[in-house]
Amino acid sequence: MRAGSHFRIIPIWAENTSMWRLFRHLSLLLAPLLLLGCQSTQPAPGKELVEAYFAAAFAKDYARLDELLHEDFIFIGPKRSDTLDKKALINSWRSTHLRNDSLRMHDPRVYDVSAQETLNRDESLILHYYEAEFHNSDLKTWVEFPVHVKFLTHRDKIKRAQIIMNQSDVQTQLGYTILPPKE
After folding, report:
1. Domains of the chain in sequence order
2. Using the 8-state DSSP alphabet, how is residue 116 labeled?
3. Contact indicator for 159, 153 with CB cutoff of 8 Å
4. Which of 17, 28, 130, 166 has a CB 3.0–4.6 Å from the CB of 108, allowing a cystine?
């Protein structure tokens, strides 16, 4: 090599036309497959749906709640015998806001556990944990308690929810006396 000479780097397909044609044909064949693969793996909007539900509920946006809940929505709890449909749940939120002058949620944690369950492709199982706090204006007292809600979503709607909470904690803080069971 002489001083002052330079190297020219040329991709192999630029010099070899058959290689360039092969690369071009493969890329044209694989592009639609990649696009189809990307569309089928879109994640379900379960977590966002649950977060939107609580945002609407705490903001007293009952119209938004109506949009988020499936027409066949079922709410269960705290007792298994407590079952509400869509309209009854929205009315329950209205009643909760009327009875209490302040309602808050602290430390929300949302988990999508869909991969651990056998669900349809359009469904998500979401667990939502938070510390609830409300101020009862009649009794002039604050009540705090943990809440766990399990949601089943279907496409862009919430289809089912089950709340788990310790009602005796709430009742005790409101001044009720819990009597032990009779023997």
Report:
1. 46-173 (3.10.450.50)
2. G
3. yes
4. 130
**What span, in angstroms and rounded, lies between the C-alpha atoms of 31 and 77?**
49
The pTM (predicted TM-score) of the whole model is 0.70
DSSP state of 114: G
DSSP SS3 for 67: helix
Tokens found for residue 80: 């298994």
Cis peptide before 78 (omega within 30 of 0): yes
Q: Please count the helices (runs of H) and the strands (runs of E) in the chain.
A: 6, 6
What is the C-alpha to C-alpha distance for residues 160 and 75, in angstroms, rounded to an integer? Answer: 6
Rg (CA), the chain: 28
Q: What is the DSSP letter of 9?
A: -
